[in-house]
Amino acid sequence: MKYEVVIIGSGPAGYTAALYAARAGLSPLVIAGPEPGGQLTRTSEVENFPGYPEGVLGGQLMDDLRRQAERFGTKVLYDVVEKVELRPFPKKLWLSGGETVEADAVIIATGSSPRWLGLEAEKRLYGAGVSACAVCDGYFFRGKPVAVVGGGDSACEEAMYLSRLCSEVHMLVRRDQMRASRIMQERVRATPNIHIHWNTITVDILGEQKVEGARVRHVLTGEETILPVQGFFVAIGHVPNTEIFRNQVALDAAGYILTEPKSTRTNIEGVFAAGDVQDPIYRQAVTAAGTGCMAALEAERWLMEQKHRKATLGVS
Ligand code: NDP
After folding, report:
1. What is the pTM of this model?
2. Whose CA is closest to 295, among 4, 16, 1, 27?
3. In the chain, how many domains are there?
4. Which residue in the list 104, 137, 153, 279 is annotated as catalytic?
């Protein structure tokens, strides 16, 4: 099957791109990927997406976005892209279900996945005190003690955000220094209710139904302590989902897709990137949706230019 626009990924970026492309009459195909609806389907309440004054469940929000895109003619395929060939025209995508899809323009919206410590308790208590997003879940821990793992800019930002809501924030840094920029480090050090635990790793997160504490170990002394935290935020980086695009689309050192400034254009003609897959900084549903809109508008413009060029050259 050949489409004018194929969107890989079904998070806020993917569905917003689909909505705009569909309303422009491009009948886009969304290939939903391994986690239809993306990261938001794993959170509970979303309270910071504009337009929902009472908040909305992550799954419901993604359902709404999908239905809105489908209403204007988006087709959603519940399959996973295994391989792509983006250089020749048309572009080719191989799906794990065995199908091959061709596209004039491709919008990559495959998102990123939070990096986890690898503890069994992270899976057991995910959504019950364990989180990888302070902006999404911090509100549920108002007035309570929490822990943040990591020493990068993300961990500092998460700690700063949580310090305004929570009684105490324990930052667990595995070395004797942080990777974060100096200004971010200065901010966390100057915040009275942020306690930095240097050379400290997490041995286990305690609790069955909800987080009741964290067992941490000082790597130099071997001493173990239990921190009585009720929220456990992991901020040790994200992994952009770009494995299948490696060696085709230009990526930065961390694997995020490089886009032109103020644009979603990649280094390949007719290939656009939106959402977390090209954004290591903001990573919000609403910013992803914004770049999804940009990608659809840019794809539409690019397709029109191609048609115009072909018409001028007299090729079909
Ligand atoms: P980083 O890779 O910069 O930092 C990851 C942190 O997590 C490091 O302190 C690392 O420790 C620690 N870590 C990694 N694995 C483990 C583990 N298994 N156990 C304990 N700690 C671990 O990721 P970030 O998400 O913080 O930042 C990504 C990029 O985004 C950076 O370029 C950053 O500058 C940027 N960013 C910028 C912001 C801003 O400008 N406001 C906000 C947020 C991010 P170690 O140092 O020992 O490896």
Report:
1. 0.79
2. 16
3. 2
4. 137
